[in-house]
Design goal:
The protein is an alpha+beta fold and 76 residues long. It has 2 helices and 5 strands, in the order ββββαβα. The strands form 2 sheets. It has a 3-stranded antiparallel beta sheet. A two-stranded antiparallel sheet has the order 2-3. The protein is elongated and about 50 Å long.
Length: 76
């Protein structure tokens, strides 16, 4: 369970929650509401976001993607 603070009225765990309320939510609900901008993590670490871009890109960044980006060269 993750503690989150509600920033926009919504539903969490089949219950209506209002702005300013701090609730405990499942990791899935917490991640979803935070991603939608309807909640923020409270204290400590929030639920870790999964970054699918890293998996898909194979670690590409602005320096290593030079040959894949139009304009030719990457940063040196």
């Amino acid at each position: 369970m993750e503690k989150i603070k509600i920033t926009q009225a919504t539903v969490c765990g089949k219950k209506t929650v209002v702005v300013g309320e701090t609730v405990e939510a499942s990791e899935e609900d917490a991640r979803y509401l935070i991603a939608l901008g309807k909640a923020v993590p409270v204290g400590g670490k929030g639920p870790k976001a999964k970054n699918r871009d890293d998996e898909v890109s194979g670690g590409l960044n602005t320096k290593s993607a030079g040959g894949l980006v139009s304009g030719g060269k990457g940063k040196k």
